[in-house]
Fold this sequence. Notes:
This protein is an alpha/beta fold. 37% of the residues lie in helices and 24% in strands. It has one domain (3-236): Rossmann fold. It has eleven helices and seven strands. The strands form two sheets. Strands 3, 4, 5, 6 and 7 form a five-stranded mixed β-sheet that branches. Strands 1-2 form a two-stranded parallel sheet. Helix 6 crosses helix 11 (200-211).
Amino acid sequence: MDAFAALERRIWAASAGGYAASVARLCAHTVPAPAERVVAVDAEPAVAAEAGRMVPEAIVAALPELSFAERAFDVVMGNFVLHHVGRPAVAPAELRRVLRPGGRPGLTAWAAPAPPGQSLLARAFEAAGAVRPADLPSPPAAPAAVTEVEGFRALLADSGFGAVDGRVVRWDHRTSVEAWWGGPAGGVAFLGELLRRRSPEVRVGVRREFERPTGEFMRVEGELALPHAAVLVSARR
């Protein structure tokens, strides 16, 4: 396991509950009529257990090596997965391996440049001086490529997929100030790890900088509408 993957495992080991209460509501929507067999996969046991409450089968596994036989599935979906993979450039090839001929992948990544609602928390950290510590591993190069449609399409094409298509999806995420702050406050993702490492004074500063611009996103009493954008790609095996 490389340094970035090890960091990811450590960050997510204690944040399943915080994720379910905050960012999960941004990243997932219910499927009204799921297929006959649905298998959920996550690298963190607690997150897999949370998913297991909603689908019949949930297992612990991590790209780029999945514990499935070749040609096991008709469809593979990965929501913002490549941002959290230590070797993202080889991950699509593993997804292709577990797809049947003619099978379809559907993958998303956060788009860049990020809309103002999407970058709200990151901007608060920057304004408060909570910069990335030098000892934290940098993300792999591939996530930078997948933040644009052409880069993401090229990654799938280079992995052997055909009929690759992609587009940017935009939406407003509805949440509250407390729920959105609950992500990093609950240790979720990299910003949660960064907040955990800061002094109490810096944490207060980050919270203050987070709250400062929230008025521009307020739609009704207590509700935020945060503009977000993602790159969505599909293909065929």
